[in-house]
Amino acid sequence: MALLLMAMLSSCSSTKHVPDGQLLLDKVNININDPNNDVETSQLANYLRQNANHRVLGGLKLQLAFYNLSGKDSTKWFNRWIQRVGTPPVIYDSTLTVASADQLHMALSNRGFMNNVVNYRVDADSAKRKARVNYDITLGQPYYIRSIDYDIPDEDLREIILGDSARFTVHAGDLLDFTRLDSWRQGITENLRNHGYYAFNKEYITFIADTAAHSRAVDLTLNTRDPYHNDHMPYYTKHEPFYVRNVTYVTNYDPVAMHDGFWGSDTVTIAHGVTVIEDDERYLRPEVIAECNHIEPGELYNAEAVTRTYRALGRLSIIKQINIDIHPLGEVDGVLMVDAYVLLQPDKSQTVSVSLEGTNSEGDLGFGVGVDYEHRNIFKGAEVFSAKAKVTYESIKGNISGLINDNYSEYSTELGLTFPKFMFPFLKQSFKRKIQASTAFTVNFDYQARPEYTRVIAGGAWRYQWTERTRRMAHTLTLFDLSVISVPKFNKQFFDRITDYPLLLYSYQDHLIMRMGYNFYRTNKAEMNVLQMGRFQRDVFTIRANAETAGNLLYGLSHLTGQKADQNGSYKALGIRYSQYVKADADYAFTHYIDRRQSVAFHVGAGIAIPYGNSDVLPFEKRFYSGGANSVRGWGVRTLGPGSYNSNNNLSNFIFQCGDIRFDVNLEYRAKLFWVVELGLFLDAGNIWTIKDYESQPGGVFKFNKFYEQIAAAYGAGIRLDFKYFLVRVDMGMKAHNPASGQEHWPLLHPKFKRDSEFHFSVGYPF
Q1: How many CA atoms lie within 13 A of 87 on its CB side?
Q2: In sequence order, which residues have a C-beta less than 8 Å from that of residue 105 and are 6 or more positions away?
Q3: C-alpha pair distances (Å), 417 with each of 204, 380, 385, 474, 620
Q4: How far apart are the C-alpha atoms of 716 and 736, rounded to whole Å?
Q5: What are the tens digits of pLDDT across the range 639-667?
Q6: Do the Cβ atoms of 597 and 54 come closer than 8 Å?
Q7: pTM over cut 0.85
Q8: 8 A C-beta contact, residue 308 and residue 470
Q9: What is the CA 611 to chain-centroid distance, rounded?
């Protein structure tokens, strides 16, 4: 924080590193002299060849200010480090101003404003050694498309192109936007390449724009050209489809060996003439490759089939690199042909990692040891076997009389096996290949020894995961998830204390949860390769939704078999009472990027869980909680709610601060300051509630006429360090509205730092 303050104070000397006789480019303004225009100046800023140093927080040039903390002696490490962290001053360049005006004119012309005029003014202040540039733009009336015609002499091309007209992105009445016309060309080209036209590219599509005198109405004609001469394909003189002759997989591709003419020691032919060349290792079964292959010999070339093959092979964790080469052959037996070579390089099959940690809790020493093992190809079908084991132990000092254990210890294991395909009987192979799901089986065992009790948790799960082809939508279907919780030993005094509290009692009694669920994820975020091309995505959203239910099958079997309920009216499975509930929750996050260094993020989330049938209370691990680094940040984790419940700041009461309903809403401003440092300013609101009125949670029940009065609110700020691959976040939240009974309800008006503040340290953005 001291460095930040120094950088702000030094911002008054922004010309410290500006050479004599030159000017600092202090500010650039784009002014559009048309009140009815729909062009955003923020979009036009991307076309400027030179812009001023970045500003944040209403005008502070923190990156430049930080740079100005350095001296001019570059031999000193401090000066070099400060200059590397900050940003040097932007020196005004008149040639770049002229180039920027030209770029603005061209960009607006491409958007249909052919008669736009771009003027610029330079306000130079020699005394202050600063310059300001103003671009004054007059748009003029835009040109628009009155009609669209098609000049496509080849009937086959015409049929394919016009057959996809429902997906055309340009229509009569649109502005004459050349960027959209280019995207239209690209879309038509992709469609043709999916119909066999391997050699077709968008340059074969041209447009003629015809306008009458003194008219802005354009009659547009789309044309297709004949192929131009190509030395690599001299036979391609007219647009014709290509067929796939052979598909060859090289499973252990070595560029040097292939250059010397050595492909492999063994060749296997699998279904439909696909050939696999492998070496002595033979790390992939041929049938696995057949399931991933979508390039069919004898069929028309299809660019989408190539993409699907890339995607299917990319799901195999044993493969490190994939390259698909398409080789045009020319005319074979009267038709144009291509050969496809799929070149694979394997990754390491096994990895082992070990983690160590030490603890010191008020003088009680402890340690933790974890071992993770993963085999990425255990059955030579890219199946992933994982094994995890962890041991933690903490000693206890002092009087241990009456306790059943003299330490805190936990022993946990988890085994997992993931298959890169949809494994379920009676499903067609075509469906399994299309959905490209992975199937995961896991089993786990956890033994917990505490001074007051010993608890054992065991279970297993069967789930499917798959993503849509754009990778912007993902699904997880949990077909079966079983957890058995047993408490074989407990201290009598501990049990007597929790007998009167159903929430606590249920958590420390034997119970069973058999559930099934579905998780959904959706985003419009562009893939990394698109963003790396320099495209700027202004608005990004994500949707996450989850739904699960438990106990219904067991409840039906209990009635079907005529099982009698126990004295509490409950049914059992394997001699253990099982839970029955339904739960659903969803979150929506939206981020608007003001520019490449500033954004505003919004989040809203809600959830509800209802116990019924065989359960009066939800299992503790299935209930909602509020407060913490990703919720209402004026409160610590699990310290808010439910409703107006007051924990009296008693740490032992956290067990009661859970609920059956949750609601969160967050608003956050984010700004990149300098180096890896980011600033966050936020407003949070939310709470949790119970469905039933529990005696141990007074004021926690949800009521339509009161819940809005019980919504907590917080405000605060945070510093984040963005290291690209991960982000470290430190947030300080302050209570603004506290719904807890007996507390100051509006600490915003009467703040006390010790009472109202909460610090959070975490990794990643909160939403």
Answers
A1: 19
A2: 116, 117, 118
A3: 50, 13, 5, 20, 28
A4: 10
A5: 898 999 987 765 556 678 889 999 999 99
A6: yes
A7: no
A8: no
A9: 32
